[in-house]
Amino acid sequence: MDADSGLVHTVVGTAANVNDVTQAHALVHGEETDVFGDAGYQGVEKRDETQDIDANWHVAMRPGKRRALDKGTPMGELRDELERVKARIRAKVEHPFRVIKRQFGHLKVRYRGLVKNTQQLHTLFALSNLWMMRRRILQGAKG
């Protein structure tokens, strides 16, 4: 997702048994300076396929490690606040999913094959981008 516009720029559909971190290289287009990911992307900066991506990877701490932080110390408090900031930034990615679920009613997925389901996701995210930009599009048509 693009941080400036809030639009989805890449959608990758995989089987359910494929780990998120294996697709990280396919989700970035190369112009990013910072990339934020949840705890499922731990170790992404060490993977061979992401070595040529010149971006700062900000990956969430595992929930157990975050609970184990000593929030009584300044360092523990600072690390917890850093995790909170990362979570706020990652939360913005959830908005297109809300649009797909609420505006377009895509709540449950019927498995029709990986290709067809991925094509449906591409279409839904394209419609979601149009929905989120509808006011700007209409202003451009008026003016």
TrEMBL record:
Transmembrane segments: none annotated. One of its GO terms (molecular function) is transposase activity. Residues 1-130 form the Transposase IS4-like domain. One of its GO terms (biological process) is DNA transposition. It comes from the Bacteria. InterPro entries: Transposase_11 (IPR002559). Pfam families: DDE_Tnp_1. This is Transposase IS4-like domain-containing protein. It comes from Pandoraea terrae.
